[in-house]
Amino acid sequence: MFRVSTDVLTFAIRDDLLQIRLESREHYVFESTSAVNICLVIENGADEDCPINASLYYRVHISGGNASAVEDYQAPLNVFTPCKERSCFQIDILDSSPVPEDVEYFEFSLSLLNDASQYAELVDTVGRVFIIPKPTVNLIATSFSGSEANEKVTVCASLSNYDTRYNISVLINVVPTLWENPQTADYDDFSNETLEMRFNSNEACVDVKLFDDDVVELRYGYFRESFRVTLESPDNNVRLGEVVSARVGIIDDDYIWVEVDRDLTNSTVREGISGPARVCASVVNPLDPVCPIQFDTYISFVSRSGSAASPGDFRAISIITAIKQCDHTVCVDMVYHDDNIVETDEVFQVYVTNTPGLHPGIRVDRTRYGITIVDNDVVTIGPDPLNINVNESVGVVEVCIVAEDGFDEDCPVGFPFNLTLQISEDYTENLVFEECDELDRCLVLSIIDDDRVEEDEQLGIILKNTRERENVLLRNGTLTVIDDDAAVPPLEVAFIEDSPLVQGDSVEAHILLSRPVQSLVCRLKGGSFRTEKNCSSGHVVFSGLSPALYTLRVVATNDRNDKAFIKTRFEITDDTERCTLHLINGGVSVSGNSATVEFTGRGPAHGYLCYLDKMEPYQCMPPSV
Predict the structure, then answer these.
(1) pLDDT class for 540, splitting at 50, 70, 90?
(2) What is the DSSP string of 152-211?
(3) For residue 79, what are the contacts with CB-CB under 8 A and spacing of at least 6?
(4) Could you say which of 251, 273, 291 is where a domain stops?
(5) Which of these, 8, 14, 51, 447, is most buried using a 10 Å CB contact count?
(6) Listed residues 345, 374, 403: the one ending a domain
(7) Could you tell me if residue 517 is inside a domain?
(8) pLDDT digits over 14-40, tens only?
């Protein structure tokens, strides 16, 4: 049977002693709210685990109060299912009319039903729902920020039009949301737990935890990572019915950036050596010098052509490389291939950048760093200026093009090229240089004097580079034909007899000139050795030479700027056992029926044999026999 009171119903079904009560007799909702949740609790002291083992149905009736018509509120038939301690039902609020000046409320009553009608007894329990004006929720600021090192950010809100009599609790719910820059948002950085902000006054604050994983490092100039804050009330109390959003930022306090390391990066490389150029970047974080970066990411090394550079020189436009956790430096080899088109130092530039699509970016210094490709050939085309004088009476002129390379004596140029020599508009000559060719070219040109102009005549000379993609002027000058009716002999230079004479590590040369000269220069080169001497006396000696193949060039210049040269080759060996002989003053002088031979000898000789034609040889000793 049932025992009834105003708020507790006690009855027995199948020997179970039950107590049924409202969880709360007063409920508050804001106006324009569509529903309110109300809950019942069943207690059974004899069986706490399963207070009821049969279905118990109950119905909610709307009655009384100062609210609008009863039909504005509806509640369906509800049921306690077996072994449930709590049952909730929803009253739908259909009235959309404004709340009067104060507060309106309505009452509801509870009817219990049982399948066994003979055990059922009607019992009413009364509750109230108050419909109150809705307060306005305002965030104190439109944006909040917290340092990732502090691991929290404080968010504050206020309520206006708020009646403290109703003890309203408001929840703050942190919901990660994409903001202006989706790339900066990382949901792992923010706690998404619901935090209760209880308003004892019109303002309250709550700390939101931050979990920055250091993946997004200040990309594309945005200083904040963003999410939004949603404020709402608990479902079983007051529902605000709207969302208030604000931007909350995590300040990146790692200060991580990547830049080209100028100390570790090559500033110069040499052409002809097909790479690599070593380029390095440093990872900088003054807050953590031991482990400047806490995650793995990628950057790109990018090369661009610079001053005087040919695009064909650079094959590696972009190289992607990984930065691992705690890396301080990363390096790559940028391969370059000089095509030798521009015979000068060239510059290409490198910088680092992010790699969108592979990993969120980090800060990078995109300042370009120049790397110079040093012209490795150092080919000099001469003479400079290309001025040549010739007497008309000579009838021929020798035009010599001299090219020298200070880097590679054995292979002066590592590429073939052509030169064009043009004299006036009447004569053009192509000079072909193959790879590793000697770089001396001489042309013998005929001079046809018509004797009509009795004065010196001058023609222009142009020496051009005639490669496929360029036409570079290398040298220009003049060819002067000197009017010489007096038949002045040409300037000629020659070695006397057996010059040069090699003796051990020395060489001696005697030079003969056809005319007086203003300067006479002897140049000697072999291997990496180069030197020159003034040999205007007609005699020169070079001593202390290392074993090598040498070239001796003698260049004579007179006061009219006429030039003549001669060259020869000889070898210095390390054979200390070698014997040499040299005739003095031509060697043989004849007087009557006698002949005198003067000679010198060097080396570990045991004796000398002299003989004429088929005569028997006999021993002889220098200096004469």
Answers:
(1) very high
(2) EEEEEEEEES--GGG--EEEEEEE----S-GGG--GGGB---EEEEE-SSSEEEEEEEB-
(3) 55, 56, 57, 58, 87
(4) 251
(5) 51
(6) 374
(7) yes
(8) 444 567 778 888 887 777 677 788 887
